[in-house]
Amino acid sequence: MNRTDRLLAIVLELQRNGSQRAEDLAATFETSKRTIYRDIQALCESGVPVVAQAGIGYSLVEGYFLPPLSFNTDEATMLLLGSKFVADHFDAQYREVSQSASRKIETVLTDKLRDEVAYLRDCISLVATETLASGASAKFLPTLRRAIIERKTIRFHYHTRYSMDRSQAKKTRDADPYGIVHYGDAWYLNGFCHLRREIRQFRLDRMSDLQLLDQSFDRPANLNLEPPEEDGRNVIARAWFCPETAPWVRESRSYYITRMEDVHNSQFEGLLVTLTAHAEAELVPWLLSWGGQVEVLEPESLKRRLANEAKKIYEKYSD
To answer: How far apart are CA 100 and CA 78, in angstroms?
Structure first.
């Protein structure tokens, strides 16, 4: 931290915590007490009203505020909750800046408002899945962030589980990274794939050997990173669940589900689920996880595939 940044940070620290001893400030900013003495003198010479009290420490004259910001309780709570969430679940770089942002927000709150915000923060908790900040995919986040900021092309190996061509199951890809997003239980990269010559989405946990190349790219103007309505999933299946199972299906909803409807007629009573996928094999694990609680209505080929898998399971565990 350079001196200019430290001087501002000292003012913010005094606003946030009130009186601070020289040794406390030295520990906070990882410097010597002699340096803090010089910094306080520089602040006084520049017009910042710092008061020194023997045995208590340094403080600011009451009524001095910097910067001129104001938040209500809800605004401050949401900002601090967001900062804490980032600090708890992202990498070290974002953890440091989010903690710094929290200190600055707390600095401009009045004592009464600060107490209200602290109370609400204790009553609200945000819980993230492990994939948000841990695992193989999370380790790529710093490199991808740098690639996005510097607009550098990346190269990586990409693994596909259900490729029709086995030779394509692991292939080297070059891509221009436009953005990253976390939804469901995984991180995804949106970018221009040099192989497919179009914008594609890549799961980070299917990537390996990520490299940052020297090649630069221009990010398209007015880029929309929302997934397209039609993403090539043209395998459509329908499955029926009995009323007793329906609540649990809704709770553990599959990524491939595009529609769920309650049905009450002479033929069916329960939950009718429509799924779409690139290949039938993508649907098999989720459908098998329900055992006899699900009945696939169509297509016939998916029924046969499930029957074959069930037969293999039976043969593996039967005497």
So the answer is: 16
Q: Is the pLDDT of residue 125 over 80?
A: no
User: What is the model's pLDDT at position 154?
Assistant: 96
Tokens of 194: 């040099």
CA distance 293 to 274: 16
Q: Is 28 exposed, middle or buried (0-12, 13-18, 19+ CB in 10 A)?
A: middle
d(CA 82, CA 126): 9
**Does residue 246 sit in helix, strand or coil?**
helix
Checking DSSP bridges between strand 257-264 and strand 198-203, what pairing results, if any? unpaired
**Of 188, 219, 16, residue with least CA distance to 102:** 16
Q: Cβ distance 276 to 286 under 8 Å?
A: no
Q: Residue 30 — left, alpha, or beta (φ > 0 → left; ψ -120 to 50 → alpha)?
A: left
pLDDT of residue 75 exceeding 70, the answer is yes
Sign of the alpha-carbon dihedral angle for 113, 115, 116, 120 = positive
- CA-based Rg of the chain, rounded to a whole angstrom? 28
Q: 166: which 2 tokens?
A: 């086995």
With vertex at residue 276, the alpha carbon angle to CA 207 and CA 289, rounded to the nearest 5 degrees, is: 75
Q: Taken in order 69, 75, 80, 85, is the CA torsion positive or negative? A: negative
Q: What is the pLDDT of residue 116?
A: 83
Residue with tokens 């009203």: 49
Provide DSSP, 94-145: HHHHHHHHHHHHHHTS-HHHHHHHHHHHHH------GGGTSHHHHTTHHHHH
- Looking at the predicted structure, is the pLDDT value of residue 232 above 80? no
Between CA 34 and CA 92 the distance in angstroms is 29
The phi-psi region of residue 103 (left if phi > 0; otherwise alpha if psi is between -120 and 50; otherwise beta) is alpha
